[in-house]
Specification:
By secondary structure, the protein is of the alpha/beta class. It has two domains: about 1-250 and about 455-480, 3-Layer(aba) Sandwich (Aldehyde Dehydrogenase, Chain A, domain 1); about 250-440, Aldehyde Dehydrogenase, Chain A, domain 2 (3-Layer(aba) Sandwich). The chain is built from 16 helices and 23 strands. It is globular and about 85 Å long. Bound molecules: nicotinamide-adenine-dinucleotide. Nicotinamide-adenine-dinucleotide (NAD) binds near residues 206, 247 and 453.
């Protein structure tokens, strides 16, 4: 059995707690590794070492820090196949999807290569007689990143790249279900020239997280995961005086207007509803067709497409559409929610619960499931299912559809399919959701914009990656200076590069 490690000061370090979490192969249900769960002392030690490394790292000029990012990006590209395999092995997603996971993280690294321009401050010349004002962006110090299981490469990269290029050191606590990708990324970062200690990967559970939240050296906490934990972490970090941004769960709706191209809308729903087994915070889990005719036609188009989906292990090749869910507990939760939907009166149009795959009987597979006639009082509507289950809530008109989205407690992503620009504009302008797609099902903003939901999908002020990340991971200092008139030095004539 493989025993995983922490990654401290540029080296793999064995855990000393004697506590481990099993890392499963979700396709077979077998334990393939065990990951150490750090003690408070191990966490404190990693933070202390990071604090020493951070002081020197912050002195490295931004252009040189950006060069480390360039090398890191090149190494990620070079190791794309290997990283995708690592992601798929522990998460269960298909290889093409796992490459997307790495790629969307890499794109954030690419934007961080332009960090010097993002880190420039502001200057006001002659704000008063002999008075100039300068504002500068300085690193926070040591920051923590706590990440979920569903994007083992992308979200750790969203956290580590901006934090580090801004001159901070980061303690990354990846999900204990998928720790290997973060450990490998840390090795590649070292190979790219990142000084030891600037990125520490600590594996652990609640005990490690709570230790980070209470550690006085930690200046900021970036979290991604489920809403109850996001809210808890935000509260505890903020109480301890830390900057915090905590991104939570979702229930993303797609409105399908009567004038929508239903072939395109149904294709979009298949990809956004069932890709990665529905384990995406930007998955569309609620289809909202407007009008009975639209709903009947949409469901008729969805049925054969859903029946045709291929579910299997990532090792079965590229024609597999999605793989298993992450754990047996997750599988049980999803099948329990499906049962509740039936009990509470929804129409189960396709039932994925009987799905079985020869040779993978112990894997956490579930077939694609479609519900029709879902109402907002049902558990399958209220809860984030986080599985391959698409629910259909029929709306009588656009205003009712919009109200449904607006009234939902989550506000991560949403989409509308329509041929009418006026409706699309109205929707984008009025909806209280952070990321909006118009004829686009999963509107994850590109890396030079920034990512963040509203309502119970995010706690804190700024989004992750893009320009917001440079604000989150730096603090502003403003200097007002006055130089009284006096004797000026002679001119310096030599043209010298800065150190
Ligand atoms: P999770 O909340 O169970 O775990 C996330 C992290 O928090 C892990 O590192 C875990 O070890 C830690 N953690 C878990 N319980 C804790 C506790 N009681 N105290 C302290 N730390 C704890 O989430 P998950 O199951 O790994 O991920 C799935 C969830 O993440 C879904 O709800 C999904 O919507 C959400 N998600 C959100 C976004 C976003 O950007 N909004 C992105 C991806 C995933």
């Amino acid at each position: 059995m493989q025993e995983l490690t922490h990654y401290i000061n540029g080296a793999h370090v064995k855990g000393t707690s004697g506590r481990f979490a099993d890392v499963y192969n979700p396709a077979t249900g077998e334990v393939q590794a065990r990951v150490p769960l750090a003690t408070p002392d191990e966490v404190a030690d990693a933070v202390e070492k990071a604090a020493i490394a951070q002081v020197e790292w912050a002195k490295v000029n931004p252009q040189r820090r950006a060069r480390v990012m360039m090398k890191f990006g090149a190494l990620i590209n070079e190791h794309m196949e290997e990283l995708a395999e690592l992601v798929a092995r522990e998460h269960g997603k298909t290889i093409p999807d796992a490459k997307g996971d790495v790629q969307r993280g890499l794109e954030v690294v690419e934007v961080c290569m332009g960090a010097p321009a993002m880190l420039k401050g502001e200057f006001m010349d002659s704000a008063g007689p002999g008075i100039d004002l300068t504002s500068m962006r300085q690193a926070l110090g040591v920051v923590a990143g706590i990440t979920p299981f569903n994007f083992p490469a992308m979200i750790p990269l969203w956290k580590m790249a901006p934090a580090i290029v801004c001159g901070n050191a980061m303690i990354l606590k990846p999900s204990e279900r998928v720790p290997s990708t973060a450990l490998r990324l840390a090795e590649l970062f070292s190979e790219a020239g990142l000084p030891d200690g600037v990125l520490q990967v600590i594996n652990g559970d609640k005990e490690a997280v709570d230790t980070l939240l209470d550690n006085d050296t930690i200046q900021a906490v970036g979290f991604v995961g489920s809403t109850p934990i996001a809210q808890y972490i935000y509260g505890r970090a903020a109480t301890n005086g830390k900057r915090a941004q905590c991104f939570g769960g979702a229930k993303n709706h797609m409105i399908i207007m009567p004038d929508a191209d239903l072939d395109k809308a149904s294709d979009a729903l298949i990809g956004a509803g069932f890709g990665a087994a529905g384990e995406r915070c930007m998955a569309i889990s609620v289809a909202v067709p407007v009008g009975k005719d639209t709903a009947d036609k949409l469901v008729a188009k969805l049925l054969p497409k859903i029946e045709a989906l291929k579910v299997g292990p990532y090792t079965a090749g590229d024609d597999v559409d999605y793989g298993p869910v992450i754990t047996s507990a997750s599988l049980e939760r999803i099948t329990g929610l499906i049962a509740s939907g039936v009990e509470q009166g929804a129409t189960l149009a396709i039932d994925g619960r009987d799905f079985a795959l020869q040779g993978y009987e112990n894997g956490y597979f579930i077939g694609p499931t479609l519900f029709d006639d879902v109402t907002p009082d049902m558990d399958i509507y209220k809860e984030e299912i986080f599985g391959p289950v698409l629910t259909t809530v029929r709306a009588d008109n656009y205003e009712d559809a919009l109200k449904l989205v607006m009234d939902n407690q989550y506000g991560n992503g949403t989409a509308i399919y329509t041929a009418d620009g006026d409706t699309a504009r109205d929707f984008a302008s009025r909806v209280n959701v952070g990321m909006v797609g118009i004829n686009f099902p999963i509107p994850v903003p590109l890396s030079y914009f920034s990512f963040g939901g509203w309502k119970k999908s995010a706690f804190g002020d700024l989004n992750q990656y893009g320009p917001d990340a440079f604000k989150f991971y730096t603090k502003t200092k403003t200097v007002t200076s006055r130089w009284y008139s006096g004797i000026k030095d002679g001119a310096a004539l030599n043209f010298k590069a800065l150190d």
